[in-house]
Amino acid sequence: MGGATAAALEQRLLGGAGLPERHLAGVRPGLRAVCDALVHEPGLSAVGLERATLMLEDDLRRLRAIVDDRVRWPAIAEVPVRRPVFILGLPRCGTSLLHALMGSDPSVRTPLQWEVAAPSPPPDAACFATDPRAAAFDAFVAKEFVGKWADVRKAHPIGAWIPQECGMMLETSFCSVNPSMLFRVPSFFSWYLQADTTYGYEVHRMWLQHLSWRNPREHWVLKVQEHMYHLPELLSVYPDAVFIQPHRNPVAVMASISALIRTLRSLSFEEQDPRALGEEMLQLWHEGQVRMMAYRKTHPELRVHDMRYTDLAADPVATVREAYRYHGMEFTAAAAAGIRRWLAENPADKHGRHTYSLGDFGLTEPRIRDVYADYIETYRDYI
Predict the structure, then answer these.
(1) Which of the two ends of the chain, N or C, has the fewest CB atoms closer than 10 A to its terminal CB?
(2) Does residue 383 form part of some domain?
(3) What is the pLDDT of residue 151?
(4) Residue 14 to residue 315: CA distance in whole angstroms
(5) Residue 212 covered by a domain
(6) If you average pLDDT over every residue of the chain, what do you get?
(7) Rounded to whole angstroms, how far apart are CA atoms 221 and 99?
(8) Residue 1, in any domain of the structure
(9) In 16-148, where does DSSP find H-type helix?
């Protein structure tokens, strides 16, 4: 990319990070891998490289914010995180919907998009509803998600009070798959698959302690598909974690996720090969399912509630109630009311219809069924 080198980019980023040595050591492997992938990606535009650099700078800024706040307020490090609920599954199978529905329960804490974007000082229950950082985040979304990026909001909910995925917290450890979503960086994805991401989950726990110090609830409910790739590391940090996995026919999700990723990358690549993108998404998400299935097969004691996407869409209250029952959580009248209120305030296609087709990405139903034959057979009762 225009003579840029990975070493120079890494030096630019870490030179102003101001992190303690422990955290520099933690972020350096992933940062080095993503810098190397970015500068060697021939299709990435100069604008794309600058966008990536700003994103990485922001990740380091947010990590330093929570590290510094732990020094300022040592009690944050003592906040317990007990039995967190993680939502797993393929993209576009109802995981974001489920996250939002469970987050509407007053007893549930989810990371919200505004507080993950601007975490310092730690959010406080006393002024949470009126925190100006929420309005600032919505103003940012209104300004940025226009033009080519306007379609992102049709496919994925974005707003201050919407639950944030764990990827935006894991990003700050440089142990997240997120760069592979926003940019075409196959060598980084290869690094991510073989990496030990324990440090990433240690940072993730720091985030939960930070966000709940002054604004706790009874349950943490968390979500991102990438947890499937690194369950051993997740469980090393959260040994009492439990899981919910919605299932949906992969034929129904591949075109949708490919269309979303094409839009996310549109500002960074002047040209995109839709067929190559479709094949990339087909294999990338299957790799996560392969790891998840293998781990579940060898660890039958893992507490996972399998859920049909069709049930969630048809009867959200009853389907969420069953997930609570499975995990021994109390499903109250306030939880049911919160779900109904959220559904009324967030109708489908609120920001317009997200349109796509398999043919747009060179995908066919037989091809998807062939790649996902193991997943379809394993969870045939749920899809």
Answers:
(1) N
(2) no
(3) 73
(4) 49
(5) yes
(6) 94
(7) 7
(8) no
(9) 21-39, 46-72, 95-103, 113-117, 132-144
Secondary structure of 278-291 in HEC code, one letter for each residue:
HHHHHHHHHHHHHH
Please name the residue ranges forming H helices in the chain.
6-15, 21-39, 46-72, 95-103, 113-117, 132-144, 152-155, 167-170, 179-182, 186-194, 198-212, 231-237, 254-265, 274-298, 309-314, 316-326, 333-345, 365-371, 373-378
Residue 176 CA to residue 105 CA, distance in Å, equals 28
Q: In this structure, what CATH number is given to the domain that contains residue 32?
A: 3.40.50.300
3-state secondary structure of 308: strand
Is residue 372 a part of any domain in this protein? yes
pLDDT of residue 16: 84
Task: Output the six-digit token pair for 362.
Answer: 């060179």
Q: Say how many residues make up the chain.
A: 383
Q: Are 321 and 244 in contact (CB under 8 A)?
A: no
The mean pLDDT value for 247-269 works out to 93
Angle between helices 95-103 and 333-345 (to 10 degrees): 130
pLDDT at 304 over 80: yes
Residue 189 tokens read as 């994805």
How many independent structural domains does the chain possess? 1
Tell me the backbone φ, ψ of residue 214, rounded to 5 degrees: -105, 5
pLDDT value at residue 1: 47
What residues make up the domain containing 130? 6-378
Q: Are 6 and 32 in contact (CB under 8 A)?
A: yes
Per mean pLDDT, which range of 37-46, 183-192, 293-302, 353-362 is the poorest?
353-362
What does the block give as tokens for 57?
A: 């700078």
Q: What is the pLDDT of residues 320-360, one digit of tens each?
A: 999 999 999 999 999 999 999 999 998 876 645 556 799 99
**Position 147 pLDDT exceeds 80:** no
Full-model pTM: 0.95
